[in-house]
Amino acid sequence: MKKVKLDIVGLSYSQTQSGAYALVLGEVNGRRRLPIIIGAFEAQAIAIEIEKMTPSRPLTHDLFKSMADTFHINIQEIIIYNLVDGVFYAKLICSDGKNTHEVDARTSDAIALAVRFNAMIYTYEFILASAGIVIEGNDFLFLENMDSIAKEPEADTLPTSGQQQGFGDLTVEELQQKLQEAIAEEAYEKAARLRDELNKRGTS
After folding, report:
1. Start and end of every BFN domain (predicted)?
2. What residues does each domain of the chain span?
C-alpha cells in the first residue's frame, strides 16, 4: 500500500469543538491537507516541541523520549494507517537497532512523539483520498492560543460533520462556494466539514 509523507502545517484552537484543537497535516510536495481534531494536552505537547520551549517539568511525551533514549529505542516513523467512523488510527514504528516493532497509538500522541524523535509522518493514499482537502497556494505554520492550552479533552477525529454545524440548509452550489472560500482563507477545519457535507450528498 502506497505511503504518503506528511508535515505539520497548522495547529490552532478548534472553533467548533470546545477544548479541542485542529491539527493540520500537509502532503509533502502536494496540495492535500489532512485536518484532525486533537486534545489540548496533545496540542500543547506538539506545540512546545515545535517551538523548542522547555517546560519546567517533563511532559509525558518528554518522559517517554527520555526512557526510550535510556534503553536505546528509536521511533523511526509513525503511520496514520486507518480511519474508522471519523476516528484516525496510528502506529509507531520502533527499533532498538536489531529488531523493529509496531506499537499502536493515538494519532495525536504519535505525532507528539514524532516531533521529539524527528521521525517521519506517513499516511496511506486511501486516507488522504477520503479525508483530505485540496488547497491552492502555499501554507504556513500557525500556532495560536498557547496560553489557553490546559486540559486533555477528546479523541483524534475528523472535524464535526457539516449537518451538525448548520450546513444542512445550504444548497450544493452554496456549499461548493463556501468550500472554496474556506480553502482560500486556509480555514481547513471548516473546509473539511463542508467537504464532508458535499460527500454525503454524493457531490465532489
Report:
1. 3-135
2. 3-144, 172-202
pLDDT in tens, 87-112: 999 999 999 999 999 999 999 999 99
Strands 120-124, 74-84: pairing kind? parallel
pTM of the model: 0.72
- Taking only the tens place, the pLDDT of each residue in 51-77 is 887 777 888 999 999 999 999 999 999
Q: Does residue 170 surpass a pLDDT of 50?
A: yes
pLDDT computed for residue 169 by the predictor: 76
**CATH no. of 3-144:** 3.10.690.10
